[in-house]
Known about the structure:
Blueprint (H helix, E strand, L loop, with lengths): L10 E2 L10 H17 L4 H19 L7 E4 L2 H11 L7 E5 L5 H13 L2 E5 L5 H7 L5 E7 L11 H11 L2 E5 L18 E5 L11 E5 L1 H4 L39 H17 L1 H21 L3 E2 L10 E4 L5 H10 L2 E2 L1 E3 L2 E4 L7 H22 L1
Parallel strand pairs: 1-11, 3-4, 3-5, 5-6, 6-7
Antiparallel strand pairs: 2-8, 7-8, 9-10, 10-13, 12-13
Helix pairs in contact: 1-8, 2-8, 3-4, 5-6, 9-11, 10-11
The structure holds pyridoxal-5'-phosphate (PLP).
Amino acid sequence: MHPEFPQEGIIHLNHAAVGPWPLRTQQAVCEFARENVREGSHHYPNWLQRVEDTRKLASELVGAAQPDDIAFVKNTSEALSMVAFGLPWVEGDNVVIPRDEFPSNRVVWLAAAERFGLEVREVALGEEPERALIDACDRRTRLLSCSAVQYASGLRIDLQILGAELRARGIRFCVDAIQHLGALPFDAEGCLADFVMADGHKWLLAPEGIGLFYVNPEIRERLQLQEYGWNMLAHAGDFANPGMEPARSARRFEPGSPNMLGIHALHASLSLLLETGMDAIDHDIRTHWMHLAEGLEGRGCEILTPRARRAGILAFRPPVRDLDRFYAELQGAGVLCALRGGGIRFAPHFYHTEEQIEQGLVAVERALEQARMTSA
Ligand SMILES: Cc1ncc(COP(=O)(O)O)c(C=O)c1O
């Protein structure tokens, strides 16, 4: 068992839903709580330093040029909303998104469409997702927004290809990276993304309610602000200053007091990911993914995630009539997973041991046996 993940009675294959914390994150939160109880905010400057340290870690993970390109947000949905309501739309513009996106990356565009008179084009990804998305763009397309990894199928989009094509056409590129960040290396600059967002609670192994928002510095000041407060000002902290000039950095998207508790936790979780190294994490997830896929296929399950486009998610359909029951059996056996898109979604992380993966497969075997017995 990995020393940072002393889990009890579970095989956590649900990092695409709500991931667990490592031990160091528990410690960071407990220490922060203790400090608050004993010393209040006496050392507030240290907390502010922790915010900036976390911003630095986040910028490394996202592949931003500098920490100033990162804002902390409540969650993915909030950052998507800031983009949807902050861009200078002209009536008749259109936005392209994949069909079957997670609701966050759909409703914001539909809501903005109503407000600004936009068209939202929902595109079936098919065999060649990047081609399909590009083909749906025309001269009125202002932005394409997609998840880096589809939440249900686990299909990974080639962001490099898509970003280059969009840049050549002058179309803004928005990436919901919540199913990618923390599972695979990410390169916001390299894929020419204009906006990247992710909450901490999945592959980043941090709590819910503290998210990252990367904005390409070239467009930062053209994204109209949706929220205002003392903290987003250039002179934040100088409370007597009557000016209202926003910070030039991405802090302009952080209106008020930071989520200090969340940031302390996020800092601990990101430090583990970066110390481990995203290449090593990618490698280990791949090993577990292949192990699971082989074991599932050997037990008659159909793998739904296209192998060549896998990230961390492994979606499969077991040979059973009652999928809900099969899922309940797994949950009952402590194998945490999700029912998504007409199948079961497994999502292993780097810290699993081979034995844990094998135990997951044994639980699948038992659930299949159970299904055979009840249908006999
Ligand atoms: C693709 C995708 N986007 C966003 C979210 C969650 O959004 P938020 O961080 O706003 O809760 C999920 C969660 O399942 C997701 O899979």
